[in-house]
Amino acid sequence: MVGVTVWLLRDPRPGDDKEVRISAGDGAKEWTPVRIQADTALTEGQRVRVGVESARSGYLYVIDREQYADGTLGPPYLLFPILRVRGGDNKVAAGRLVEIPGPEDNPRFLTMRMTRPSQVAEVLILLVTPAPLPDLKIERNPIQLSPAQVQAWEKKWGAKVERLEARRQVGKTYTRAEKEAALQGTRLLTYDEPLPQTMYRLEAKPGDPLLVKVPLRIAR
Question: Number of folded domains in the chain?
Answer without folding.
Answer: 1
